Amino acid sequence: KSAWIVAGNDIYDITSYLGVHPGGSSSLLRRAGGAKDCTEDFKFHSKKGQRQWDQFKIGRLVQLQEERKDKPKAWWTYWNQ
């Protein structure tokens, strides 16, 4: 099992940090899985603490481009029309 959080567009895998987080694992788990954007939590930490987040960064969220007009729509896009 793993625990990921999102801050802005950045994704962090905090699984290995759960047992050592000074605020306890429950404070992290309440926000895991994208339950809440953790940007404000990130800003709460000291500069040193913010730099430590870098080691857990595993990716970025990106907005998908609109589908090309010449491609047929996937079946699920018609579901609620």
What does this structure look like?
This protein has about 80 residues and is α+β, with helices and mostly antiparallel strands. Helix content is about 20%, strand content about 15%. The protein has helices spanning about 25-30, 40-45, 45-55; strands at about 5, 10-15, 55-60. β1 and β2 form a beta hairpin.
Write the layout of secondary structure elements.
Blueprint: E1 4-7, E2 10-13, H1 25-29, H2 39-44, H3 47-53, E3 57-60
Question: Could you provide a short overview of the structure?
Answer:
The chain has 81 residues and is an alpha+beta fold. It has helices at residues 25-29, 39-44, 47-53; strands spanning 4-7, 10-13, 57-60.
User: How are strands sequenced across the largest beta sheet?
Assistant: 1-2-3
Percent helix: 10-25%
Count, helices: 3
Radius of gyration: 17 Å
